[in-house]
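Q: What residues go here?
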C-alpha cells in the first residue's frame, strides 16, 4: 500500500511525468533515426520505470554482452547525459525539503539507469 501511495505522490510532486516525457522524447528521436530503434525501446522501458519507480529496481540482464556495453557508450553521447542531468537536478531540487527527500533519492536511483539502460531490465522488488 505504501508503494502505491509513494508512486502516486511521485507522479504529482516528484516529477515522474516530466521525466517520463524526457524519456519519451529521447525514444521518439531514436525511432526517427531508424538505426537507433533499440535505444528507443530502452528509453520507453525507462520512461515506464520513471513513472512508477517505488517497488521496482533495475538489474543487469543475464546474457547481455559486449554489444550492449558498446551501445551504452553511444547512448550516453546521444541521450544519456541530458537525461541523467535532469535526474540530478530534480533530485537536488527535491532534497531541499524534508518531504521531498524520498523523491530526490528516487531520482538519484534513476541516474545510473539514464546512463546505462541497455542490458538491464526493470523488476519488482520483494
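A:
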Amino acid at each position: 500500500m505504501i508503494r502505491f501511495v509513494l508512486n502516486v505522490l511521485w507522479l504529482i510532486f516528484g516529477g515522474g511525468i516530466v521525466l517520463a516525457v524526457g524519456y519519451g522524447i529521447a525514444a521518439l528521436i531514436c525511432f526517427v533515426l531508424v538505426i537507433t530503434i533499440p535505444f528507443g525501446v530502452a528509453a520507453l522501458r525507462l520512461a515506464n520505470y520513471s513513472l512508477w519507480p517505488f517497488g521496482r529496481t533495475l538489474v543487469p540482464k543475464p546474457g547481455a554482452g559486449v554489444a550492449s556495453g558498446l551501445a551504452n557508450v553511444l547512448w550516453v553521447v546521444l541521450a544519456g547525459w541530458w537525461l541523467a542531468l535532469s535526474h540530478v537536478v530534480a533530485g537536488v531540487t527535491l532534497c531541499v525539503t524534508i518531504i521531498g527527500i524520498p523523491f530526490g533519492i528516487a531520482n538519484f536511483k534513476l541516474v545510473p539507469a539514464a546512463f546505462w539502460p541497455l542490458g538491464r531490465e526493470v523488476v519488482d522488488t520483494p
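A: Context that may help when evaluating the design: The two ends are 13 Å apart (CA to CA). The mean pLDDT is 85.
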